[in-house]
Amino acid sequence: MATVIHKTLEQLREQRDRLLAEVGMSYEELRDRAEVYSLSMDELDVWHTIEGIDYLLDGDRRGDFEARRVGGRVR
Prior knowledge:
Elements: E1 7-8, H1 9-23, H2 27-35, H3 41-61, H4 65-69, E2 73-74
Antiparallel strand pairs: 1-2
Helix pairs in contact: 1-3
């Protein structure tokens, strides 16, 4: 059975900010280094996590029905 983690949109934004701070890079720096394959394994993990967070947050900007239906929580 799959594990489901519920986070608010604010918690996702905070997690995204924390991850960027942990690697000491801006989003643009991390993205640019990812494009030329110059990230360490830990940095690559952060990049993939940020991509996932951005996907969820983008769903909110599009007015994603499921995100609204569960009271601002994304699953």
